[in-house]
Amino acid sequence: MKNKILLAVLAIGLMSTLFYTQTNLSQNLKTQVLIDISEKTNPRSETLQSYNYEIISQEKNTIKLDENEEKNLTIILQNTGKNSWDISENSKNSLYLKSIFPNETNSNIYDKEEENWQSPILYKISDKNGKTEIKTNETLTFEFKISSPKNAGYYKEKFGLLLENKKLLRTKTLDFDILVKGNYEDSYSYEYSNPIMKDNYLPNKEKQIQIKLINTGKTPWYKSENNYAYLQETNTKTETILSEPQVLPGKEGTFLVNIKTPSETGSYEKQFVFGIKDLKTFDSTPINFEMNITNKKVALTFDDGYGEIDPFIDTLNEHNVKATFFMLGAVAQNQPEQMRRIVADGHRLADHSYNHPDFRTLSREEIVWQIEETRKIMKDITGVDPAPYFRYPYGASNQFSNSVVEENGWKWIHWTNGTGDYQHHENSAAGRHQTYFYATLNPPESSIVLMHIISKSTLGALPDLIKWYRENDYAFVTVDEL
Ligand SMILES: [Zn+2]
């Protein structure tokens, strides 16, 4: 399904922040910046002491700019370094502001390296009151003019300070957000790109709805504080800010909307509108997301970890499903990045012993070691405790092992729908069919599906079996919600 929205009226927002990449000293009104003049002969610390300034004041009000309009801006800089600034007309060491004010769509991209500044405009710094030298602790008032870009929308204006040689000084940027009025229609639009517009949830849960939109307009979307792109829930007016720092035209942006699910089962409509912070008004076609509140639940579980874990995480993420990974301690040691990803992406990491012994053959000490050693490894790697969720290798247990496991505070999790997928390491039609068939075979209201990372067939079957569970009103849960 596709929605297209168009946003109305734009204003101009103007803010300033000075950045120093190694040390962001950003404050609200008073922003300090350290100027590295990049003279390689000077020890860095000395250089930093020599060139230093603060912004005493600058324009803070919202200014509306039409397309092709020009605007005067004023900033007051205080020299807080040791060196005097010679800003006379013929100074060899004058300071400049260099702008990358965008005049074309997509030109407002600054990728942290001075070489990639685009559409540069150079402003030689002078003092409104005619001062030609600014000594330590003195201030100057600098007026300069900006002109709006062709297209309406939000832009990032970046300025850096230069010396006479006009080499841009990396890391010293004045950062403006600029919002330009005009014909907004070309600037902001999107298409809905979620794989699903409806999902099942358990009652009374804190959950996250994932909404993906493709930026089909001409202006990038940002996450930054003054001009962020957001989804607003129509009823509550709650805003959810874009997840990515920047979404260029043609790219996909994600909004992770936190919700509390209703206590009664049934169907609920959530409605969202897309917006850009500080736009005075906008007109957008709402995005409708259907929440089906159900008591049926399924935990997709993946065991062991031999093989490639990433494609499983990718597929689950793509379908907005959280799953449980019963991993071996030995696997966790070998694939620490994947363990961290499991946790970071909101899945549940659980304990499946260190190296997959048959627990019916183990002593008390061996049982405890297998589980606790794995727990320690996982905690060290991810910072997250897999306890109390444990699954027996082969699902094999006896009364003795159960008593030891339980005495140590662990809950062992079996399954309702085993798939036998470890028989199919490769991705084959027969293997996919087997996984799908058993995963969806008469599942109870609280279903636990057992699958294995080793099976590429299972990876292949995953989208279809997710679809089946979703269409059959099951909420996807991790083992802690069973
Ligand atoms: Zn296993």
What multimeric state do the chains show?
A: single chain
* CATH homologous superfamily caption of the largest domain: Glycoside hydrolase/deacetylase
Helix-strand makeup class: alpha/beta
What is the correct CATH architecture of the largest domain? Answer: Alpha-Beta Barrel
Query: What is the helix tally?
Result: 8
Average the pLDDT over all residues and give the rounded result. Answer: 78
Residue windows where pLDDT falls under 50 for at least 5 positions:
1-48, 101-119, 166-172
The name CATH uses for the topology of the largest domain is TIM Barrel
Overall number of strands: 29
Q: Note the main sheet.
A: 6 strands, parallel
Please write the CATH class name of the largest domain.
Answer: Alpha Beta
For the termini, the CA-CA separation is 33 Å
Are any ligands bound, and if so which?
zinc ion
Summarize the structure.
The protein has helices at about 45-50, 310-320, 330-335, 335-345, 365-380, 400-405, 430-440, 455-470; strands spanning about 20, 30-35, 50-60, 70-80, 85, 95-100, 120-125, 135, 140-145, 155-160, 170-180, 190, 200, 205-215, 220, 230-235, 240, 245, 250-260, 265-275, 285-295, 295-305, 325, 350, 390, 410, 415-420, 445-450, 475. The chain has about 475 residues and is of the alpha/beta class. The strands form 8 sheets. Strands 22, 23, 24, 27, 28 and 29 form a 6-stranded parallel beta sheet that branches. The protein has a 5-stranded antiparallel beta sheet with strand order 1-11-10-6-7, with no helix packed on it. A 5-stranded mixed beta sheet has the order 13-21-20-16-17, with no helix packed on it.
